[in-house]
Each structure stands twice: as structure tokens, then as C-alpha cells.
User: What shape does this take?
Amino acid sequence: MCERMMDALVKPVAGPGLELRQVPVPHPEAGEVLIRVHKTAICGSDVHIYNWDPWAREHIKPPMVIGHEYVGEIAELGAGVTGLRIGQRVSGEGHITCGRCRNCHNGNIQWCKNTTSVGVDRDGAFAEYVCIPARNVIRVPESLPEDVVAFFDAFGNAAHTALMWNLVGEDVLITGAGPIGIIAVGICKYAGARRVVITDMNEYRLDLARKMGADAAVNVAEEDLTQIMHKQGLVEGFDIGLEMSGSGAALGQMISVMRNGGKISLLGIANQPVPMDMNKIISKGLTLQGIYGRKMDNWHQMSYMVQGGLDVSPVITHRFPYTQFEEGFAAMNSGRSGKVVLDWTK
Ligand SMILES: NC(=O)c1ccc[n+]([C@@H]2O[C@H](COP(=O)([O-])OP(=O)(O)OC[C@H]3O[C@@H](n4cnc5c(N)ncnc54)[C@H](O)[C@@H]3O)[C@@H](O)[C@H]2O)c1
Ligand SMILES: [Zn+2]
Ligand SMILES: [Zn+2]
Assistant: This one.
């Protein structure tokens, strides 16, 4: 039998770059679903893989197809899959969990101790087709813009981090105006925050955060955050902090401007251990919550927030056909980008 072939972005060997190659279309095994990919978005971790940094060297075993942010339609169902049908608009949860550990059993699958990841531990979505377990398939209303659903994975990280706390009437500090920080601005405003202040040193990205509705976007290399807090009418400090930079300096600054009793969620991943002022955390009575991945419920929340009027499209800065993927990665590497969307429809 002649094997069906497809285009895919492959990490061919250990080293920088990706190659556009023909590879076999994956076959959905029992309990799996084959998805025809329409659009994908480039995540920071894809850039790590592209650049072949120490994290990528540790986690990626070439040759493999990468990518985990996508929207598409169901193309084929493996044996035994029920409740889904060919042609349905879908995205997919990229963390494949065991379903048996204690966290899986209590619904906190984001803390499964046996997680494997699409586009990291198994072939990913930067391809015409991707195959995932049926329970990871997320149905998405057809009315939602595909450019936005393409990055629901990253949107879900932002939603999980921001919606960890009740935001109604609260003053929020977001450190790091990367794509996830920028999306978080929109979520916090939508969820009822009073003031949303975001920091970075990258003016291009701060500008995107302003377009997303930030009350203040602060260049910490040039401006004094406490002065801006006062201008924004914050008297006792921020109620909620979302650390989305992975920088120890940003976390230190956040801790110093939180009000007593404030709550912080930590999404940003540091590339080395971060020292912090424990005494300040203790004397201020702060709560710090680590965030990994997203809750399955966030997928529904995202669809409903978009249907309810949350427009996160200002974070999209570049769109390319997949054949121009090099330009997409160059945009991400330049720092002058928000989300980059690749189109896989011909
Ligand atoms: N925990 C998880 O499951 C998870 C999932 C996805 C992403 N992440 C992490 O979340 C973070 C955000 O993701 P992203 O794709 O938006 O990242 P990104 O790297 O594109 O953005 C981080 C931003 O932080 C800024 N920054 C650096 N130092 C700063 C400082 N001192 N103060 C303020 N800003 C500073 C950078 O200029 C950059 O714009 C990253 O660290 C990423 O690794 C974690
Ligand atoms: Zn991602
Ligand atoms: Zn588990």
C-alpha cells in the first residue's frame, strides 16, 4: 500500500533550525484522532527548539515534527472513538496525562506526574496533520476566528494564571509583556480588574499591551514603577501579581510593590534558580502559586470569553503561509512580535 505523505516542519538532527519535509501522515491508533491542521501559532518553546538552546537539547529527540498550538478539523477517528465526528472544528490539549495518578483523579490534570507533550515528546502540529488521543481533542465553536483559536494553548496559560484569583475590582501587576503577558492584560480587564499595569523593557511589546487595554505599560529600564502606581491611584500596592517574564529581577520588583495579603501566580520559567526576599513575602503575608499548563476547564472559558466579547487579536502581529516559517521564527527571535500565525491551508 502506498503511504500518504504530508508537509511538516521537522527538527531533523540535533542543532539549530527546522526543515520543511515530506513525512508520512500519522495513522490514528485505537482511541486516537487525526486532525487536519488549518492554522498553527509559534510558541516560545518552539523558538527554544528552533534555536536549539540547552532546554531543547535536553528535551527533544530528533528527528521529530514540532509544534503544539493549532486549530483544525477532525479528519479521521481511530477505532473505538465515540462522541466526535469527521469535520468538527477542534484544537487539542498538548499535555497527555496518565488518567491514573492522584492529580488526574481529582481533575487537576495539569499536575499529572506522568505528562508527555505534543511537539516535545511526540510528533507535533506543525504539519498538515497531527494525531492525538481523543480525550485531548477540544471542540471549538465554528464562529470563533481561527487565527485566535490557533493560540488557545498560550491563551490557556494566560487564563489559568490570571483566573487563579478573583479579579473583580482588583489592581493587577503583570511582569513580562511577552505574548502571554499581553493576552493576560485582556483577560484581566475582561474579568473585572480595576487597574492592569504591565512591565517590560521592550517598547514594541509594551505597545501591544496598551492596544490590549493595559491602563499602564511601564518600561522598567526607564520608568519608576512606584510613581506610575501612584498616578494610577494605587495606595497600598497591587492586589494581584502575575509573573510572566521568568526574570528574578521582575519577581523581586513585584514582591516589593504588592500590598499586604496580595496574591501572586508564577508562570514565567527562569533559566536559573531565582533568589527571593523571603522576609518580605512573610511580613507581607503574600500567597505565591506556581502555574503549570492550563486546566481543562480553561478551554471552555476561552471560547466563552471570546464569544462574550474578549478580543485578543491585537496580540497577533504576523501571519505567514507555513512555507515561510523561517520568517515567522525570525520575527519571534527579533523580539518585535506578538503571536505569529502560520497558515497550513492550501
Ligand atoms: N508554566 C508554564 O506552564 C508555562 C507555559 C508557557 C509559558 N511559560 C513561561 O511563561 C513566560 C511567558 O511566556 P511568553 O511566551 O510570553 O514569554 P516571552 O519570553 O516571549 O516574554 C517574556 C517577556 O518578559 C520580559 N522581561 C524580561 N525581564 C523582565 C523584567 N525584569 N521585567 C519585566 N519584563 C521582563 C521580556 O522582555 C519578554 O518580553 C515565559 O517565561 C515562558 O517560559 C510557562
Ligand atoms: Zn505553547
Ligand atoms: Zn496522571
Remarks:
- The pocket of zinc ion (ligand 2) is lined by residues 43, 45, 68-69, 153-154 (CB under 6 Å).
